[in-house]
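re the bet — no i am not wrong, look at it urself. input seq straight from the record:
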Amino acid sequence: MPSDADRCETEKEPEAAILYCTRAIESGRYVKAALAAFHDRRGYAWLAKGEPERAIEEFDTAIGLNPQFAGACAKRGAAYAETSRIDSAFADLDTAIRLDATYAAACNTRGLIYSRSEQYDRAIENFDTALRLYPDYAAAYNNRGYAYAHIGQQRRAIVDYDAAIRLAPGEPKPYHNRGVAYHELGEHDRAIKDYDGAIMLDPTYAYALADRGFAYQDKKEYERALADYAAAIRLKEDEPLFLANRGSAHLAQGRYEEALSDLDAAVRLDPLDARALGLRCRARTVLGQDGALADCYRSLSLSPEVADTLASRGFALLRPRRRAAASRACGGGRAGLRCSARPRSRWRNPAAQGGPAFLAVGAR
């Protein structure tokens, strides 16, 4: 029967890993490097559970027991990044690489930090290094693909997602990300197939459900879109994007009361969501409610280029004796008066690169 020490090292489920590592630590049988390894593993489990502060405490202990522990330095760097202590994160990652110049996971994590701060070229450099050190690093392929997607290189991103899927076929995020890339290219059916793959691997993957709804909405398959948005909202009720997208689908079908309900909820959750405000402007206008133009002007003050808001403002102004103003507000011409109510993809969410549990797939 495996010992607690063995299970501490091999258990994938964070809660169980914490239990086995705690037993090993409290057994009194281990010292120095061995004890440091258990604290490191318990820290990684806390990080995977979304508790970076507790993880940092464990990594502190591990490094105190073994100052040459490159892995603990790298993971503490990841935990610091999760708490927005970026300087501390880079310091730890640099230390890890100094201690072990072949440490691919440290380069991958450094790339993630650059990517999340939208420094995509520097992110790609670090992912390139990680892949030179460890060519079968699925997470680095996924993360580099995400960075390429954000500089408009969707086809190159797809090549990286293909590699990530080949190396880690059980990971849902590369399927989701590849679906987003296909969606950005207008290949909706291929996108939906990849979203299906992600959801099959993880039925609770709310963002994949929402993005599949987005693809169905672009295909004007509104009932399917609404079903996916509803499923995503059940899983993550506090995500304003999902509510705004469902509101836009209701708008596209002329269900203005339902749209307004969703858009009200989205704005309550994020009062600075320019797009949700612009869409609510349209719903309020159709329903004859006060506050429509206020929503539009608020939206434009937050983001002057939101196309939905420009259209909605024109629609709100489209009253007797105000048609000329409406046309100007929308940019002029008939095209300006179209209110597409197109949903917004989740593809710019850094979470698509994977949390701690995916940072080190296939690597230390």
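see?? Confidence is low (pLDDT under 50) at residues 319-340, 346-351, 355-364. told u. also DSSP finds 21 helices and no strands in the chain. so pay up
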